[in-house]
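Appendix B. Raw example, untouched.
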Amino acid sequence: MERAEEYLEAILDIQEREKRMVRTGDLAKRLNVKPSSVSEMLLKLSKKGYVEYQPYRGVVLTKKGREVAEKIKKYYNIFRIFFRDFLGIEKEEAERLSCEVEHHVNDEVVKRVCMIIAGKCNICEECEYKVITLSDADDGEYIVLACPSAVEKVGIKPNKKVRVFESKVFVDSEGILISEELARKIILKRA
């Protein structure tokens, strides 16, 4: 399915940019494959209901094909932001990794990554994850959603309730000072 998803994503990109049917040659050039390979794949995608294909004229996505393409594109953007902005990976490497990962993750994995990058991206019109990092937390009680394993030894771990008061984190009533670097990587939601 990975190759089919790459075709759907390429069709979406070209369709949105050019505002027209996508030609076999467009896809061959974009995906670096022979036009005969493109025609073969488009016939397969058409039989599965992902595209409307007219030989010698072009192809457009069906509703089903658009949904798959948009989902894959969204996954790519989520992982690109995660790798680049959260993990600090160079832009080109982040893009390469995102392109590989986008086809091999499920909704649960994406949901967890979204919780980490929530508030630091603009992928969705409205983020469904109302989360913050520990470094941005006001005084109050929170549930830990995600954190580096380095803080687990002091009791901070996913699903654990913590209290923030005067720049300290309290776990089971014990106050802990966390470095700013680690605090930016601990993801919380209000309890």
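End of appendix B.
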